[in-house]
Amino acid sequence: MSIWKEYYQPRSIEEAVAVLSSSPAPSNIIAGGTDLMLDLNQGNHPPVNALIDITEIEELKTIDVVNSEIIIGACVTHNQIVKDQNVQNNADALIEACGLIGGPQVRNSATIGGNVAHALPAADGTIGLLSLNTEVEIASATGKRRIPITEFFVGPGRSILEGKAEFVTRFFVPLKKACQGSAFKRIMRAQGIALPILNNSVWIERDGDLIKEVRISIGPAGPTPFRAANTEALLRGEIFSDETIALAQQSILGEAKFRTSPRRATAEYRRQLVTELFRNTIIQAWQRTF
Ligand SMILES: Cc1cc2nc3c(=O)[nH]c(=O)nc-3n(C[C@H](O)[C@H](O)[C@H](O)COP(=O)(O)OP(=O)(O)OC[C@H]3O[C@@H](n4cnc5c(N)ncnc54)[C@H](O)[C@@H]3O)c2cc1C
Question: Under CATH, which architecture does the 61-174 domain have?
């Protein structure tokens, strides 16, 4: 049995939405195909009626700065992000996340849209974008809408797009201001399994020695890409110090829900790693606020 019946390559967002709306279910958007093609070929995804390849839509392939935001198209590849001067100047966490994904071949074809839309709790690009307060633009037959990335995920591998004729078109990342910085770090098995044992991204804003604002994302630390909201609240307004970091480390252990994944790590191993990973990441982000 063939794993898809029809393959479409629309040239505009409107055309893609029309094909998606009119194709009999199940039909799937495909971008770089680095996740979806493997899943289809290996039988981890049921055969589909239509694949709608959105990589020929020019406006999904650009990175622009408009007003106070970087706008990243869903079909921008990880390598494109890593090389982009505007992202380099404003979003260290995203540069570091995308620069670590797969190897050069994967980074040349895999897209940031596919990374987020697959909705895996440990996807590196997703965890980077989560700490950067990103908004996601979604296109449907009724037009486009923007939502905070925190509202996009509903479960492991599940997003609010499920069952709808909608797809992700762009990401909006706020430009970096004075006294702000971000960093991303991860722990990975040596033998190239696609997702990390653990990753962490921190965005922080300084007011003198005080933490004015902070966002912490960790993967995998729950059924969806995880923001450590309690720890963020605990850190807000505190002096940046070893004591404060130690309190935050305990807080993360209290709110993150680590699990055992057979080919990557046990929950207990992740609990042991997360405190030091977080310490290194927040210190790096803080140093970048100067
Ligand atoms: C060898 C290897 C190593 C990898 N290493 C890493 C790694 O280190 N870190 C990591 O995070 N990931 C890794 N991955 C996973 C994968 O490469 C990334 O998640 C990639 O960003 C997926 O993008 P894609 O364009 O290939 O998505 P696709 O495979 O095209 O699509 C993935 C899913 O998202 C949906 N989709 C794609 N684009 C959109 C859109 N715009 N709107 C709505 N739905 C959409 C598809 O329908 C599909 O369900 C690796 C994969 C391989 C094969």
Answer: 2-Layer Sandwich (3.30)
